[in-house]
Amino acid sequence: MLNSNEINFFQKNGYIIFKNHNKDSLNYIQKKIFNLLKDKKLEKTDPLLFFKNFHKKIKKTQLNDVRLRAINAINHDKLFRDHYFKVGQDTLESLVGNELAMQKKINLSLQIPNDKKSMLPMHSDIYAGESPFEVVMWIPLTNVKKTTHSMFITNPKDNIKINEEVTQTKSKTIMQIFNKYRDKFKFLEVKFGEILIFTPILLHGNVVNKTKETRISLNCRFKSLLSPYDVFSKTHRNIPHFYKPLNIKPLTSIGFNFINSVNKKKFDTSEF
Questions:
Q1: Which parts of 117-256 are beta strand (E)?
Q2: Which end of the chain is more exposed for a tag (fewer CB within 10 A), N or C?
Q3: What is the pTM of this model?
Q4: Domain residue extents for the chain
């Protein structure tokens, strides 16, 4: 569990980096992705070295198809989902609560050098209808350097000012606004074996990877089961469309079943 200093750091900065909680679970995740991406001849290759040099094994035109096949495979593997949660369970419960909802789809990012298509401009997930009561758990499978190799993020204080300009100014592009406030963003260093949790309220993104190494990472959203979902827009990013419950307490199940008996299935409890 997090101590008071770590919780204060998260509240001040909107993110926290910590060592994974379960080595076996992280090994399962690493091995699964390695087996999905590697050639059958590479049984004895070090996964960390393979991921770092993945751009030497694949053509840019193949990248998206490979990524989508891997995403499909991991999201049909129930054990993968369980292990994903376990690597950050204690920190998630410290920050969010012990009744959680987990995004149904775990995402995989393959950011190879000089690939403009993998660039993700500055944004807040709120723009896409996400809940402000969620966090993203980001797991790197490579050592992520504090350069264009990483993702960038701002802080809660500067985020308010920059977000106002993004939402109210029509004469500037997202890139122009990002360049104006570039010194308010930081590229994060996250080593393999460490986990990043951040609030996607904060403006974040990535630029073209100008290093000579591939960055491979996974991301998935978590939120408190009973906190609001569609706050700013009705995008159906809720249960059961976008999230799946975790750790349901007995009283919560009783409560939902009662509401359904009165309101004719207002809540879909088939996922519980």
A1: 120-123, 134-140, 152-153, 186-187, 194-198, 204-206, 215-224, 243-246
A2: N
A3: 0.92
A4: 13-150+189-263
